[in-house]
Amino acid sequence: MKAKIIRVAEGKQSTLSQLYIDGIFQCYLLEDKIRAIKIPKQTAIPAGNYTLRLNIWGGMNAEYRQKFPKLHKGMIEINGLPNFSFVYIHIGNNFRQTAGCPLCGFGFDFIDGDYQIVRSKDAYQMIYPKLLSIAQGAENHISIENNFQF
Question: Residue ranges of the DUF5675 domain (predicted)?
């Protein structure tokens, strides 16, 4: 399976993306604003090609084991990013909750100049097994590209 994040819109402090697996739309993602100079926990991931891996040692694992006891095997980490570490695809609704990570959701709103996503927990439960399969496979790549449409 192949994963791709395509960025489609920018807000004042937010970036809206779409997640595709094997060319099929899965859900929306929300990140912080794209910045030329990184601000820790406030900057979108640079466009490029990276790997997905299963992180079983990071701090969010205990929280996610409690939230998703039957689902969670480890955090899905986007690895190999320049100047970024511990970047997980996780739940949340607005750019203040991203901490530099993509949040997943089944829909979005545009409020006061920024994007927010909705039904994050539902989206996470749907995409997690697919992303886990990619992270544990030999072809564990993910690409991120900018293709702003609105």
Answer: 4-130
What's the CA gap between 30 and 102, in Å, rounded? 5
pLDDT digits (tens, 9 = 90+) for 80-119: 998 888 999 999 999 999 999 999 999 999 999 999 999 9
pLDDT digits (tens, 9 = 90+) for 22-59: 999 999 999 999 998 888 889 999 999 999 999 999 78
* Residue 16 β-bridge partners: 9, 30
| Amino acid in position 88 | Y
* Overall domain count for the chain: 1
Nearest alpha carbon to residue 1 among 45, 48, 52: 52
131 is written with which tokens?
């992303």
The domain of 11 spans 3-146
